[in-house]
Specification:
The complex is a heterodimer of chains A (about 350) and B (about 350). Chain A has about 350 residues and is α/β, with parallel strands linked by helices. Chain A has twelve helices and eleven strands. Chain B is α+β, with helices and mostly antiparallel strands and about 350 residues long. The longest helix of chain B has 18 residues, at about 65-80. The radius of gyration of chain B is 29 Å and the shape is elongated. Classes of the chains: A alpha/beta (about 350), B alpha+beta (about 350). The interface between A and B is large, with 50 and 51 residues.
């Protein structure tokens, strides 16, 4: 395993982030969030995000180097950067900043896929030696994916959402309930005050053996429940908290159900030629406590080991890009100087992602 | 001296190098801004890879993404090499040569801004050859280019030598210690193509059911928030002695964006608290809440008038209150226990029928 000292930069959406890692040790980890900036627009505005990334990037990088006690860029072994997927204008700020630094210092550049970074983020779990191969549930604002990760960290897409991503569903549910963004944590906090079972939303049933998921039905159920409550008025039952709890429970049940199917098909004891013994839970929605508990329980029932990304690295961050960079080749010379960002991950296009 | 200059604000990628002797070499490419470093690398190779001591970068205006790649790249190089970075006005680099050839005439630099517009800015060279801007850069319709009085230079791209000369003028005029890369930002001229989500603002009573949302709002607004108990106590006050208002956005499920609370104490009304979500500030919500508080409390009998305490550091709030007829009446030393900050006491008399401007 590599123990090179790497500066990693991430700017794919609305977080400007930099980290210094050595292997799996995170020496510094700086994230400047723009969430509040975009809240008033009802979503991330690409041009605003890109402008903010430019203002923040150098400050964040300086901070990451300082925090890690790195005297200068020349003390590093490589510079890693998120190449895609994401907002291209936003990505290009990180890519240009990383390329400039690599070029000026002669350091190798490492271009990392953002989704690969999430998949590798479970390796940041303390006291767990997570090594590939493993199965993975990636649940975030933009993605809901069931993945196989082989010995060489080659990732295969086995199932994904048919409509909204899990995090997107949380955000939309939160908006319906009048909560601020980011909706997931707000909705989960509200749900803690709800009475379990006061209301039930039926999780979407996806037939047959597909590992795909769907969340739009749960969102509709919440909208209908809110509208009906508005008509009744009296007593205003069920409460917002009851509805939030039902909503969260249904999303978690959908994801846990998908994990159960995945494990049955590909997990320990499945008889699959490439059966895996570990499942990793990664991505922004992996910060949800009920989801963590449900996935852990589902895996335990099936004799699978489960590993979840530590809370602080579930959302977008640069530490995961640094850790992931160990699987990618160095880029130098003309290839590094002309590196471009990309909007769509090969994981969508080819259902496969190979770190090269 | 070796000074490297780059510009990516037009569809041409431009690089120029001023070597130790002051000689200028330059190169351009019609490729994408993403390949800027390729061009720079070739230029430096041809010059025997001198050690750079300063950088200049065209900050636009121009294509947003192109300018951003140029500026981010230049900042990154300056940070890595720990050398100063200077901002170059791309329109000036375009206009500079013509301006110098025609001293005392107005010369406009123009860059295609797409969407049927050009970014333009007027310049003039004095007898000393120094080019100065006569006004700010702005975007105008293509058809209006003909109406500009003076010479209009609307080339796509620029001569690397002109870029270098413009950079040298900036460096010559720079004060000691100038060149912090973090101060070099693009001149976009245009605002981002985004409008804040339209508010469907509704002001109605704030009720106990709002407590959860109110506490979330309070935590987002203030470093030392009111406790839940304090709000509960306010909200259960008798309705003839209290006004509690909520500002909700019906565009997003009636989300609570702000709240205003006033209580009658003795013969006057005390504005207890006005809070507005940080993401929705500067959009007139605080003013609406204040106006409604005054209106509703007047209907209950305004008494002597309205009073409130405000942090002297909260200049936005003070300006709001002054615009609504409040005058600073005194000071309460150390009023804010958490910070030891003083409070201004502001007062609006009932017989001061101020109509907000």
């Amino acid at each position: 395993m590599s123990d090179r000292l790497v500066l990693a930069i991430e700017s794919s959406c609305d977080e400007t982030a930099a980290a210094v890692v050595r292997g799996r040790s995170v020496l510094s980890d700086v994230i400047a969030s723009q969430a509040e900036l975009h809240d008033r627009f009802g979503g991330v505005v690409p041009e605003i995000a890109s402008r903010r990334h430019l203002e923040l990037l150098d400050v964040v990088v300086r901070q990451a180097l300082d925090d890690a006690g790195v005297g200068g860029l020349r003390d590093l072994d490589a510079i890693a950067v998120t190449q895609g997927p994401g907002l291209v204008g936003a990505l290009l700020v990180g890519v240009a900043g990383a390329k400039a630094r690599a070029w000026a210092t002669g350091l190798p550049l490492i271009a990392v896929d953002h989704l690969f970074g999430h998949v590798a983020s479970a390796m940041l779990a303390p006291d767990v030696e997570l090594e590939p191969p493993y199965l993975c549930l990636l649940a975030s604002g933009g993605h809901t994916m069931l993945l196989d990760v082989d010995e060489r960290m080659r990732i295969t897409l086995l199932g994904s959402t048919r409509d909204d991503a899990a995090g997107e569903a949380f955000d939309k549910g939160a908006r319906l309930l009048g909560l601020p963004m980011p909706g997931g944590p707000e909705l989960a906090a509200l749900a803690t005050g709800g009475t379990p079972g006061a209301v039930t939303f039926t999780p979407a049933m996806i037939h047959h053996d597909t590992l795909d998921t769907s969340f739009s039905g749960i969102k509709t159920a919440l909208a209908v429940a809110l509208r009906e409550r508005g008509r009744r008025k009296a007593g205003a039952e069920p409460s917002d908290a009851d509805l939030a709890a039902a909503f969260e429970t249904a999303i978690v049940a959908t994801l846990a159900g998908a994990v159960r199917k995945l494990v049955a098909q590909r997990g320990a004891g499945s008889g699959h030629p490439q059966a895996r013994e570990t499942l990793a839970l990664v991505g922004g929605v992996a910060a949800n406590a009920k989801l963590r508990a449900a996935v852990e329980a589902t895996c335990r029932e099936s004799g699978m080991r489960s590993v979840a990304t530590p809370l602080r690295w579930c959302g977008d961050n640069a530490a995961m890009i640094g850790v992931a960079s160990a699987w990618y080749p160095d880029r130098t010379g003309s290839i590094a100087r002309s590196l471009d960002a990309y909007a769509t991950s090969p994981l969508f296009r080819d259902r496969e992602l190979v770190p090269n | 001296m070796p000074l490297l200059c780059i510009d990516t604000s037009t569809s041409l990628v431009v690089a120029a190098l001023v070597d130790a002797s002051g000689a200028v070499t330059g190169s351009t490419s019609s490729g994408r801004a993403q390949a800027l470093l390729e061009l720079v690398d070739e230029l430096l190779d041809a010059a025997g890879r001198p050690e750079l001591t300063a950088l200049g970068v065209g900050v636009g205006p121009g294509g947003f993404t192109g300018v951003r790649i140029g500026v981010t790249t230049a900042r990154g190089i300056a940070e890595a090499l720990d050398i100063p970075l200077h901002a170059i006005n791309s329109l000036q680099a375009i206009a500079a040569d013509v301006a110098t050839e025609h001293p005392d005439e107005v010369v406009w630099g123009a860059i295609d801004a797409r969407r049927g517009e050009y970014f333009v800015q007027p310049f003039r060279a004095g007898a000393d050859g120094i080019v100065v801007a006569l006004g700010p850069a702005r975007a105008i319709a293509v058809a209006d280019l003909d109406d500009l009085s003076g010479i209009v230079v609307a080339t796509d791209g620029m001569d690397p030598r002109a870029l270098a000369r413009t950079a040298l003028a900036v460096v010559a005029a720079a004060e000691d210690g100038a060149g912090d890369p973090l101060h070099v930002v693009p001149d976009y001229v245009r605002a981002p193509d985004a409008e804040p989500a339209r508010l469907q603002l509704r002001i109605d009573p704030l009720v106990l059911d709002d407590l959860d949302a109110l506490m979330r709002l309070e935590e987002r607004c203030f470093p030392a928030p009111w406790s839940r108990g304090m709000y509960e106590e306010e909200l259960v006050r008798p309705a003839n002695n209290a006004v509690h208002l909520a500002a909700r956005d019906d565009a997003v499920g009636g989300r609570l964006l702000g709240a205003g609370l006033a209580s009658r104490i003795g013969d006057s009304w005390h504005i207890m608290n006005i809070l507005v979500d940080p993401s929705a500030q500067r959009r007139g919500i605080g003013a609406r809440l204040l106006e409604q508080l005054i209106e509703c409390s007047s209907q209950l009998g305004g008494g002597d008038g309205w009073t409130l305490e405000v942090r002297p550091s909260n200049t936005a709030a003070i300006a709001l209150y002054e615009a609504h007829g409040f005058l600073t009446a005194g000071m309460r030393p150390g009023y804010y226990a958490e910070t030891g900050e003083d409070a201004f006491v502001m007062w609006r008399s009932a017989d001061n029928p101020v109509v907000p401007a």
